[in-house]
Amino acid sequence: MLSLFIFKEDGTHIVYSPSLDLSGYGKTETEAKKSFEIVLKETILYALNNNTLNSLLISMGWFKNIGANIVYKSANITSKLSTNDYLQNVINQHSEVKLKNNVELSFA
């Protein structure tokens, strides 16, 4: 599950995930969400095909829990604020920012 920031910049709707440092955009919020899903799916598929998903997630601050199943958990938003200039800008420069926590995504 991810936390997503949704905001408007220069007339464009943007969906941003600080946990993965990925964005989608569009003329409407719906278009931006669809764009984000495409970017996320392509990023994951690329990493899987190149056997780099583990290193990608670790480099983004995710934690790997090894048990019966390997589970990755992202760092919390507070820790991202101290290291992510773009996230700081989003929060400080945009008066209307929606935060959607624990967004579940599915891929068809």
Tell me what the structure shows.
With 108 residues, this protein is α+β, with helices and mostly antiparallel strands. The chain has one domain (2-50, 77-103). It has four helices and six strands, in the order E-E-E-H-H-E-E-H-H-E. It has helices at residues 29-49, 53-59, 77-81, 85-93, and strands spanning 2-9, 12-17, 22-26, 63-66, 70-73, 98-103. The protein has a four-stranded antiparallel beta sheet. It has a two-stranded antiparallel sheet with strand order 4-5. The longest helix is centred in the middle third of the chain and has 21 residues, at 29-49. The chain starts with a strand and ends in a 5-residue tail after the last strand. The model has no long low-confidence stretch (mean pLDDT 84).
Q: Which helices and strands, and how do they pair?
A:
Elements: E1 2-9, E2 12-17, E3 22-26, H1 29-49, H2 53-59, E4 63-66, E5 70-73, H3 77-81, H4 85-93, E6 98-103
Antiparallel strand pairs: 1-2, 1-6, 2-3, 4-5
